[in-house]
Amino acid sequence: MTNEEILITIQIALLALAPVALFIAWKIGVFRGEKFLQNAPSRQGKIAWEDLFIACACFLFGQLIPGVIVGSIYGFDESTSIPLGPKGLLGSLSFLSVIPLVLFIIIRSPDIFDHGLKTIGLSPSKLHHQLLDGIKAFLITFPIVFGLGAILQFIVKLAGEDPSSTSHALLHQIRETPAAFFITSVFIQAVITAPIIEELFFRGIIQTTLIQNRYIGKRWPAILITSILFTAIHYNSVYDANTGEFAWHTFPVLFVLSIGFGWAYEKTGFLYVPILMHALFNISQICLVLALPDC
Known about the structure:
The chain is an all-alpha fold. The protein is built from 10 helices and no strands. Helix 5 (127-158) packs antiparallel against helix 9, helix 7 (180-212) packs antiparallel against helix 10 (272-291) and helix 8 (219-233) crosses helix 9.
């Protein structure tokens, strides 16, 4: 079988599993709205607007740290095409972007939340149960997200476009430069750094703030709004400024994926659950690109 035939087989299998996953989600009550989450763990405390502003600043500032370090070493700016070596180093240093937000949460959580870090689900107690919940939630979300992705890719092909040319920036770079050092740096960035910082920020801070807001105050609206923000912030990842190509078909996938992260977090109350789901999703994407580089 060719790589394309293998990919089509995988997509068909995931499309077949998607209704099963949807049925399981229905059986456990996901589609019951707030009733599904009425017994979910509550997060006691209050995130003030100034704390939210500082958290946003820490999140954004953290994204700049690796680029500033690599840029100062190699002496290039944003208009420069980054060579493979610096690009790999940029990914390897991506873990530094977590530091400002993590420090903020560690310092402020005792004052913001009634039980500190435990309130937002960063407790080591029953960690094996949390990881098992993360795997279960991923196995439900995975076929739905990938099935949707397969349908949208088929639509893109019908429109005469190449889905692989407008995929996530990191995945596109792996196809172009499959060097071991670069792939390792992408792994660090996509499987370790991104899940931690994005789930801390979007689920731990943004979603929690929205639930505590008196005008929103409910879990599902907070999950949906957070998912819109999560999807929007990935705009640069799916837009190629050099070619003008825009992977519009990835936005619904990211949105549904984020909803999966959100409901899993609310249902379990542990932040490790969406972090693990996020990491597993990114691993599956990287493995698929490495196994089928031409698709």
